[in-house]
Design a protein that fits this description.
CATH class of the largest domain: Mainly Alpha
Oligomer: single chain
CATH architecture of the largest domain: Up-down Bundle
Number of strands: 0
Number of domains: 2
Number of helices: 8
CATH superfamily of the largest domain: AhpD-like
Order of helices and strands: HHHHHHHH
Low-confidence stretches: none
Helix content: over 70%
Shape: globular
Radius of gyration: 16 Å
Mean pLDDT: 91
Length: about 140
Amino acid sequence: MSAESRLARGRRTLAELGGDGEAVFAALADIAPDMGRYVGEFVFGDLYGRPGLTVRERQLLTLASLTALGGTERQVAFHLGLALNAGATPNDVVETLLAGLPFAGFPRTVNSLIAAREVFAARGLLPVPAAPDPD
């Protein structure tokens, strides 16, 4: 498949998810325009079109991975918006982040939860209903 069609598919996927993909491309245009193209082609053009996982599941996995990396709050906020657009609920997001706590650690998980709170607040999704108490 040609680079142009992969990029076009990636841009279409981003647009379908309601993400401002053009902002990603624009933010990198003056320093590393190829990086924006890589994101468009590989992440959203290739990976998001693979069978086996829904876009919602891919976004929740992305949130867990970004949290484990740490220092990725801007990307957490962006992908959290895509996760919500793909059908994830605020509770899905919170539970995903909490499930990664033993692996990511408290500081990284807290940072991602704070980023999540900001996205939820901007969308009028606070307070997030608590999961039922297992006891």
